[in-house]
Write a structure and sequence with these properties.
Distance between the termini: 17 Å
Number of helices: 4
Helix content: 10-25%
């Protein structure tokens, strides 16, 4: 999966520091990220170094490190100019294009950095009193100087569930999304629920089925939605007739192991669970 980047080591501890010349800079323009054009055309994700941007007037915010490399968010008032000649050889690409690219540790860095970028962007003012938030010098928290409210990055728990009926697995397709491949029933944990209760509710809401024998498989940080995904398998309990929630799903159907076309892309928990079932390892 995308977070499995060995032999590289991810360290999300916060440090108050400025980049050195070899630090990598993640510069975002909403849902786009700045990369080196030549490397990207050759199928490699490569971000600009601080040494390449030292005369551009941008500011930096420390994000995390991967092995010996520090990653910083670049902060500027004219992001669009970086992909239009301000620094030669750079271009913005859609974040969605990182999926399937490599090397994997760089894709993971871009996705995780974008999660933090969205959090900083969406938390400029205190939700308690409305005053501007301040960046703490010793940790990643944002603090209100007026009422003392402290805000850390929020992680939203969610589930993905492989529903099985003997040698068949229920596969779905999302409605209204650019991702068109088959997936599994998934959803966010709601207030007052255990994760197992979320599994039962989401399955009933999306496909009108009951499940039993719910068993945990594995978890995955999913930066695209700021989610900690918890994967489960569950057995069908009763009728296999599907009632589709059409606002959420475009399709849902039962597939035998032989009918499943998925191949392991080494990216998502959903894909890994589908492949495990297809290969008879679940």
């Amino acid at each position: 999966m995308i977070q499995e980047i060995r032999p590289y080591r991810f360290n999300n501890s916060y440090f108050s520091k400025q980049p050195d010349r070899n630090s990598e800079i993640l510069l975002f323009q909403e849902d786009k990220i700045l990369v080196r054009s030549k490397n990207w055309k050759e199928g490699e994700v490569c971000y600009p170094l601080a040494s390449e941007l030292e005369h551009t007037g941008i500011q930096y915010r420390y994000l995390f490190s991967i092995s010996e490399t520090d990653y910083f968010q670049g902060i500027s008032s004219d992001y669009q100019n970086f992909g239009n000649g301000k620094v030669p050889g750079l271009e913005f690409i859609d974040m969605g294009k990182l999926r399937g690219a490599g090397p994997k540790h760089q894709v993971f860095a871009g996705n995780t950095g974008h999660q933090l970028f969205r959090w900083y962007r969406d938390n400029r003012f205190c939700g308690r009193c409305g005053n501007p938030l301040q960046h703490d010098s010793d940790s990643r928290l944002l603090k209100c100087g007026s009422c003392g409210n402290e805000i850390y990055p929020r992680i939203s728990p969610g589930i993905v569930v492989g529903i099985t009926d003997g040698d068949k697995l229920l596969l779905t397709k999302y409605a209204g999304r650019t991702y068109k491949k088959y997936a599994l029933v998934a959803g966010f944990n709601e207030i007052g629920e255990s994760l197992e209760e979320t599994v039962k509710r989401e399955v009933m809401e999306e496909v009108g089925l009951r499940v039993k024998n719910i068993r945990y498989y594995k978890s995955q940080p999913w930066a695209n939605s700021g989610t900690l995904l918890c994967g489960y398998f569950a057995d069908l309990d009763g009728s296999a007739d599907i009632t589709l929630e059409e606002e959420e799903l475009a399709e849902a159907a039962w597939f035998s192991r032989e009918e499943i076309q998925a191949e392991n892309e080494d990216y998502s928990l959903t894909n890994e669970m589908i492949v495990k079932f297809k290969e008879g390892r679940i």
